[in-house]
Specification:
Elements (H helix, E strand, L loop, with lengths): L1 E4 L8 E4 L6 E5 L2 E5 L6 E4 L4 E4 L4 E2 L12 E4 L8 H18 L20
Antiparallel strand pairs: 1-8, 2-5, 3-4, 5-6, 6-7
């Protein structure tokens, strides 16, 4: 599971394989540094660059969710053999917790797989 601040995402998010030359801003020892995903590594990216590496293992600071986030999205991913029903239960539990700890938040669960979109050039 990962989350993105939609107000900081540029041009939508895309799940793609890295070419290996993309810059990925991360934090190491409290300082922002630029790293590079391995060629073929699965990354989330937007029009500006890499937002998250290795599916949802390493989130970059540019689009991360913070206490100031007003519009965010959570991405729940699964691969076989995990059944879709388990992902749907996790999404329901997440929505319930968000409603409980963020009164007044508008929650719009979408459990259908998202359509594929072309990656930015």
């Amino acid at each position: 599971m990962g989350g993105e601040d939609l107000d900081r995402v540029q041009g939508g998010t895309h799940l793609v394989r890295a070419g290996g030359d993309e810059g990925f801003v991360t934090v190491a020892g409290g300082t922002e540094v630029v790293d590079h995903p391995a060629p073929g590594e699965v990354i989330w990216r937007d029009a500006t660059g890499v937002t998250c590496r290795r599916w949802n293992w390493r989130q970059g600071p540019r689009t991360r969710l913070t206490e100031g986030t007003a519009s965010g999205v959570f991405l729940l991913e699964a691969m076989a053999p995990m059944p879709l029903a388990d992902v749907e239960r996790a999404a329901t539990e997440l929505a319930e917790l968000l409603e409980r700890f963020s009164p007044g938040a508008r929650i719009e669960p979408a459990t259908a797989p998202l359509p594929r979109a072309p990656a930015p050039e």
